[in-house]
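Changelog note: in this version the structure field was regenerated for every chain. One regenerated record is shown below for reference.
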Amino acid sequence: MKQFLTVLIVCWTAALASAAEPQWFVDFEKAKEKAKTEKKLIFMNFTGSDWCPPCAMFAKYVASDPAFQAFAKNNLVLVEVDFPRRKPMSNEQRAANEALGAQMKASNVLPTYVVLDSDAKELKRFHYRGEDGKAFVAMLEKIKK
């Protein structure tokens, strides 16, 4: 019985932790479908996750911040368009990211953030300037209005 309760507690804790973190899509078409269905904004993060210092700062200070995660869960469909140098990535995903970066004119300066409405119309484009999660959410709230 003790072992069962321990396993149950571990599973419950893991479920709570994963529920707190929003899902990042890598498939733009699926993200657009979800945004349209749920009437949410699309937040696109064009990143060099394994080599770009400001991209790593965004991941550390914004994407992992509970304020950003709560806002994202309720208001955003998150899309990561990664351009890694060392991290393994399938050729198909790499090609899709390159095409999307070219289409959105967002792969030359990283990180670039593009916010789209639920119909995939661009609302705002900007770069990371060292904001914490709360300040970043404040910017997103202004865009949402």
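Spot check on this record: The first strand starts at residue 24 and ends at 25. Confidence is low (pLDDT under 50) at residues 4-8, 10-18.
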